[in-house]
Amino acid sequence: MSVSAPQVLYTPAQRARRDATAWTWVQGVLAPVQFLVFLISLYLVVHSLKTGEHTDWALGSVVVKTLVLYAIMVTGAIWEKVVFGQYLFAPAFFWEDVVSMGVLALHTAYLWVWWQGLWDTTQQLLLALAAYMSYGFNAAQYIRKLRMARLQKPTPISPLTGAEAST
After folding, report:
1. What pLDDT, in 10s, does the model give residues 57-84?
2. 79, 24 in Cβ contact below 8 A?
3. pTM exceeds 0.90, yes or no
4. I need a surface site. Which of 2, 71, 134, 151 has the fewest CB within 10 A?
């Protein structure tokens, strides 16, 4: 049985770009804002499903959550381009991006159904809960990657060649 080396999330050059770009800060601000909006909206959605009260607030909160999701996804794609050289599906974040597409699809489906008034409010709120479950899974993926990044020891760059120094 062989033990594989831990996955390296960032090369030294990628880590330097990650640390130098303002998009890292933007992501660091938007992520907790989105999570707070999610928690408030989740409360409103569940409360509305249980009691039938404040349904308009619950439905509207999902719209706000979706708009914040779009903002973090667009800025996250820009961050990925700066750090990894491509807007989406960089190897280090491939599966997170795949799941993010499903999260976006569910949230966008909610917007369409809400905007068009296609389903009754209970069905709309249940669709929102499905979107939120996918968001929770995706958020856990990103938290795992954040932890991996913190645990990854930086590999020094050789000052002569700019390449990773061998150890």
Report:
1. 999 999 999 999 999 999 999 999 999 9
2. yes
3. no
4. 2
